[in-house]
């Protein structure tokens, strides 16, 4: 059974929240970018927490039958980028999130209220 982008978005947000991710933001990129339908952006306060958030999202995606296309940055745990197809997840370390400020780069995107 295929997982639609809204279900995938909610699953990623819930998994991040369950691992106490900070300041979780979901952006709707439909009509703005061909990269993905949604970005999920969050951060952890330590390398260990960043890895735990990303690991939980990957685990839940696999359980839901979603295809995890790629994960980058797990070793350094400063910025983990997860390609879930229609949803791209950015799990930052707090310092890197402030520096890169992805939300500002995608300011045309609407913030999505998630479950």
TrEMBL record:
This protein's record includes keyword Repressor: yes
Pfam family, one: RsfS
Main location: cytoplasm
Record keywords: Cytoplasm, Repressor, Translation regulation
One cellular component (GO) term of this entry: cytoplasm
Similarity remark: Belongs to the Iojap/RsfS family.
Assembly notes: Interacts with ribosomal protein uL14 (rplN).
This protein's name: Ribosomal silencing factor RsfS
Source organism of the structure: Paenibacillus mellifer
Organism taxonomic ancestry: Bacteria, Bacillati, Bacillota, Bacilli, Bacillales
